[in-house]
Design goal:
- Helix 1 links the parallel strand 1 and strand 2.
- Helix 1 packs across helix 4 and helix 2 packs across helix 4.
- The chain contains four helices and four strands, in the order E-H-E-H-H-E-E-H.
- It is globular.
- The chain has a four-stranded parallel sheet with strand order 2-1-3-4, with helices on one face.
- The protein is an alpha/beta fold.
């Protein structure tokens, strides 16, 4: 057994204004593809009432059920508790803390679009998540 098994799991927070599309898809992929080896959060500064149905449908096509997810409000605590904070190209402002890794993924906004328009966004997110997992868990890549 390696000593890395005793270290804390890396944690990632996905942030998008409404927490209804991009950040939800990214979190769902990381939960699934990370197989429980990474703590995953998602939130928004102005969360919507529900997750985008086109995003739910697009993810279902790839075998991931997001139908029970609910948008959550972004808190300072969520940022503090995360090692990596990824914003989704929506210009959301996050509190900045030293020692955290911040990334901004420039992604099209799926709001108001049909599943056909959401598929390429979903596929882009999946590739980015696979790269993120390889970076955070190099021993499992």
């Amino acid at each position: 057994m390696s000593t890395t098994e005793t270290t804390a799991k890396p944690s990632v927070l996905f942030v998008c204004v409404h927490n209804a599309g991009r950040s939800q898809m990214a979190a769902a992929y990381l939960r699934t593809l990370g197989q429980g080896r990474i703590d995953v959060r998602s939130a928004g500064s102005a969360p919507a009432d529900s997750v985008n149905p086109a995003a739910v449908a697009a993810m279902a096509e790839d075998g991931i059920d997001m139908s029970a997810e609910l948008p959550k409000v972004l808190t300072t605590e969520a940022v503090q508790e995360s090692d990596v904070v990824i914003t989704m190209g929506c210009g959301d402002a996050c509190p900045i803390f030293p020692g955290k890794r911040y990334e901004d993924w420039k992604l099209e906004d799926p709001a108001g679009q049909g599943v056909e328009a959401v598929r390429p966004i979903r596929d882009d997110i999946k590739v980015r998540i696979q790269d993120l997992i390889a970076d955070l868990l190099p021993e499992h890549a």
